[in-house]
Amino acid sequence: MDTETTLFPDREKAMENIRRKLALLPDQPGCYLMKNGEGKIIYVGKAKVLKNRVRSYFNGSHDGKTQKLVSEIRDFEYIVTASNTESLILECNLIKQHYPRYNVLLKDDKSFPYLKITHEEHPRLEVTRRIVKDRAKYFGPYPNAFAAQETKKLLDRLYPLRKCRTLPDKVCLYYHLGQCVAPCEYPVQASEYDRMIGEMTRFLNGGHTEIKKELQRKMAEAAEELQFERAKEYRDQIAAIEALMEKQTINLHDHQDRDVFGYAVDKGWMCVQILYMRQGKMVQRHVSVFPYYGDAYDDFLSFVTQYYSDNPALPREMLLPERENSSDEEEVCESLRKWLNIKAAVPKRGTKKSLVTMACDNARVALEEKFRLIERDQERSVKAAEGLAEWLGIPSAGRIEAFDNSNIQGTNPVSAMVVFTDGKPDKKEYRKYNVRTVQGPDDYETMREVVRRRYERVLKEGLALPDLIVVDGGRGHIAAAMDVLTNELGLDIPVCGLAKDAKHRTAQLLVGDPPEVVPLPRDSQEFYLLQRIQDEVHRFAITFHREKRGKSMIASRLDSIPGIGEKRRKQLLKHFGSLKAIKEAAVEDFRALSIGEALARRILDALNDEKPEAAEAADEAGLAESEAGYAAAAEAGDAGSSPA
């Protein structure tokens, strides 16, 4: 492995170093790690021949996304492996270790729910997304939590395993519903659990037909014995199985469990489609869409290896699509087989080939659908901004800046600005403002201050001016903003206001001097755009205000005492429990906190200093919440960050 760690933020020096290292690359398999100017690993890849693969990044042409990756590379390392199998496993482990931004990332299988039969004296059936080696039985994955929960509901009706995490003292409702054998009160033989778990395992592995036949037999026996209520229960269970399995239309007669993979790429994006087949029947599917930056097939294999790493619910076989212009398919399949101990194949003909083709076709359709949705959303947003400009009689509304104020009876006043570009939020342009000059709840003066500060800075730094300014308010807010813009700064920027109704919903659009109502239809895209802007700026402002108010509420009189910092303040409140207890303590009581006599007397003098009644009352009004906040922060080890 190349262990050089020197950083090369300068592009020319970096390329000189890279050219020197390219000449030393070996003709062996292995993994390579691309780094940026800060030395951070941004991409991990594997190669059959390291020299050829790594050199390809710096020679020839690439698509836009790969060019972006290459433009950030300032150094690389490599690790030589003995075989392609080792490089496959190593790549997966390195991706999970470093989480490179340009790699396909599938973190800990958290996207996929599984059904789990616990390994306990009294086992339970549960839905989980966390797979651990605890000797439990895992089945899945399921494409979503709803599918897993529906299957669990059916099995709960068929097999009465316990439901409680901790055994209660007496039977619960599940016992009376026939969905629990009540091990809390009645002894249950291990053989009974073995029977239920065996049948559940067969069911979850695809043996629905056998379970259905057994239920039909029991239903017939119950009917012959005139136990019609029991027969009805069996009938309902059979109907539930049929409802769950009714969409399974594709079958293979070998009754094997297999996962069928297909993928499609376009415009720098990849879609992977997985078809889950259990006992020869297609039961579920899963779709993942993500950007990719390396070779398409290599990044597809990276997805596959991460998907199966640390996954105990493995099929007997996986089917993979062909790789164009490649002769190493057999080697790839052999590597996967050695690592995962399951069969991997690239079918060339027949039903299995048709399944892979279907998976690839579905992946292509899903990718095209994503692009259509993106294009439609972008087109709708741009048209809404253009339509709004027409309604207001201005040339453009491509860049909209919106303001909102937030305070509670004048306390902790803040303001916020959001930016929408072509009808879409541009979050990197958002700004927060601590109001400096306004005393009390004066929304108009607050608007004046914030608009003045914003556009004085825009003029000073030569930043882009907006096409439209939106203020969250009516005529007074518009007048305040226009007065600052026109009379103080000499700017001619259209200003509109969003007035709200009694239910605090967007009701009217006001514009002009004097402001007039614009008869914007409430079901138009332009009105929806304004609603999104108003909701977003209000959310941003109120979030900032809550942060500031929360930090101010944990202010303490201890803050003003010289020699008391954040750490000692936490220790004092945690040790004594309240400010009142600190005031009543003796000098000797502070020794447990390694506080000397001089500082202890200073603390007691400061806290017991007589104050005017009004000030004392105001201070005490916030003490309870302040001390509780500090005590909680002390327990958590975090007293919060400084205000923005």
Describe the structure.
The structure is a single chain. The chain is of the alpha+beta class. The protein is built from 19 helices and 19 strands. α7 crosses α8 and α13 runs parallel beside α14.
Lay out the secondary structure:
Elements: H1 11-22, E1 30-35, E2 41-47, H2 50-56, H3 64-72, E3 75-80, H4 84-98, E4 114-117, E5 125-128, E6 137-139, H5 145-158, H6 173-176, H7 190-204, H8 208-224, H9 228-245, E7 258-266, E8 269-278, E9 281-291, H10 296-308, E10 317-319, H11 329-340, E11 343-345, H12 350-392, E12 399-408, E13 411-421, E14 424-425, E15 431-434, H13 443-461, E16 468-471, H14 475-488, E17 495-500, E18 506-511, E19 516-518, H15 525-553, H16 566-576, H17 579-583, H18 597-608, H19 613-636
Parallel strand pairs: 7-10, 10-11, 12-16, 16-17
Antiparallel strand pairs: 1-2, 1-3, 4-5, 4-6, 7-8, 8-9, 12-13, 13-14, 13-15, 17-18, 18-19
